[in-house]
User: Which sequence fits this backbone?
């Protein structure tokens, strides 16, 4: 049962126009599609390079943060299923400036993340076509995914379901094959659990290396929050959200930790952490004919799936910004099929940036895109925890049909962990750009809000304040 308050009804009303065409199964697959992508298949190589075998702890910590986040989001989304999602919640429960910053911070983050995925696609295609310039693939695949998103939410949902199902089948097959290899390997083969400690110990880069890899793990889990945005187009949002949140978290943590554990047992961490996907290296180590090519194809599909989800989510966030009056009106207009096409086209600028970087700095393009894209996502995760604290203060817990356990300690723990990881980026060469870009970006957004939107936001906030929120 929805617990939407009168003050929130105006936000729900202004975001109408999108079609409710997603099933609960598709909702789960959208979250998985976004989160099982480049972060697992390519980004894990960076994490392994930072932490060695202790990357397993890094991903466990990242998974714990993601679990806390999903609990907070589930509680708020069941109460308020709308495409503005955590941006709309921040606007209503904290204030218009918070909603403005969260929406634009998240939108920019996922726009850059789209560029990260499509940059990775160019890396994967070099496996088969090393002489072809990467930007050819970036442009070609991007056109296809933009067309899918422009068709309708049903077409998007069907394609994303197929993409994600293929990934899940492939990962399960990888787990079965990897387990067989590890437990049947001869004693002197160099394969086995001894790899966790035989190349510098379990913490070859120390506790600091393990903690730095948490940053990459959060990047890997990034996109699980998409499920809250997609709830605005779900057929039965309350039921679909509850089922999808639970299924998504179990699958993600299970897949990430087990795949990394098997990868490190088969390929020593100092080889798995080099350039390229550690998954392809594992398949190459099996010496099964064509295995490396098959897994590279799966990884390519994973990146396409994540990019597909991210295009969807950036489009809806810009749609929400426009309907709130924080972006030009045309970005809030929908086609006959219920798609905000203008918002979709604007959200492809990350692809253009990826093309430019791939041409100008092909070796550094992926790391740079990842470090810049992380700020908006990490800031959004932090604000979701903060918003949840405000949300629970405004609600009687007994009136909520879905409740987050451990309040307020779980929300506070999540917020503190996010602050800690954000601060850590500044002291890490690879991710220093995260805060160097992010802090000025938030300041610039705040100035823009103060100059152009404050009066409009304050006026919109008056009714909500009158409701006692």
Assistant:
């Amino acid at each position: 049962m929805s617990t939407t308050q009168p003050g929130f009804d105006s936000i729900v009303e202004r975001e109408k126009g999108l079609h409710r065409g997603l099933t609960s199964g598709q909702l789960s697959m959208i979250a998985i599609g976004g989160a099982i992508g480049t972060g697992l298949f390519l980004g894990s190589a960076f994490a392994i390079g930072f932490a060695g075998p202790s990357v397993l702890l890094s991903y466990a910590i990242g998974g714990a943060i993601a679990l806390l986040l999903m609990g907070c989001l589930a509680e708020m989304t069941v109460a308020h299923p709308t495409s503005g999602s955590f941006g709309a919640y921040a606007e209503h429960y904290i204030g218009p400036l918070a909603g403005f910053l969260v929406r634009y911070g998240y939108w920019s983050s996922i726009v850059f993340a789209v560029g990260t995925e499509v940059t990775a696609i160019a890396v994967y295609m070099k496996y088969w076509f090393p002489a072809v310039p990467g930007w050819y693939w970036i442009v070609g695949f991007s056109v296809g995914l933009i067309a899918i998103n422009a068709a309708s939410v049903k077409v998007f949902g069907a394609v994303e379901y197929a993409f994600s199902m293929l990934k899940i089948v492939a990962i399960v097959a990888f787990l079965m094959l990897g387990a067989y290899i590890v437990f049947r390997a001869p004693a002197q083969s160099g394969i086995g659990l001894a790899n966790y400690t035989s190349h510098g110990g379990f913490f070859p880069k120390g506790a600091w290396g393990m903690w730095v890899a948490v940053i990459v793990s959060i990047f890997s889990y990034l996109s699980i929050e998409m499920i809250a945005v997609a709830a605005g187009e779900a057929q039965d949002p309350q039921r679909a959200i509850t089922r999808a949140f639970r299924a998504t978290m179990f699958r993600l943590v299970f897949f990430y930790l087990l795949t990394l554990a098997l990868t490190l047992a088969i390929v020593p961490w100092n080889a798995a952490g080099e350039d390229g996907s550690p998954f392809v290296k594992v398949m190459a180590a099996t010496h099964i004919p064509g295995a490396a090519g098959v897994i590279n194809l799966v990884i390519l599909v994973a990146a396409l799936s994540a990019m597909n989800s991210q295009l969807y989510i950036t489009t809806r966030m810009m749609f929400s910004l426009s309907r709130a009056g924080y972006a030009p009106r045309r970005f809030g207009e929908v086609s006959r099929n219920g798609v905000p096409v203008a918002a979709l086209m604007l959200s492809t600028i990350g692809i253009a940036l990826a093309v430019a970087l791939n041409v100008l700095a092909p070796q550094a393009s992926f790391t740079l895109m990842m470090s810049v894209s992380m700020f908006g996502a990490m800031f959004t995760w932090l604000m979701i925890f903060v918003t949840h604290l405000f949300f629970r203060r405004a609600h009687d817990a007994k009136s909520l049909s879905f409740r987050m356990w451990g309040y307020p300690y779980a929300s506070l723990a999540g917020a503190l962990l996010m602050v800690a990881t954000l601060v850590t980026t500044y002291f890490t060469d690879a991710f220093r750009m995260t805060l160097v870009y992010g802090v000025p970006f938030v300041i610039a957004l705040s100035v823009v809000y103060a100059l152009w939107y404050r009066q409009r936001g304050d006026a919109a906030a008056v009714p909500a304040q009158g409701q006692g929120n």
Remarks:
- DSSP finds 20 helices and no strands in the chain.
- The CA atoms of residues 107 and 314 lie 5 Å apart.
- The chain has one domain: 26-455.
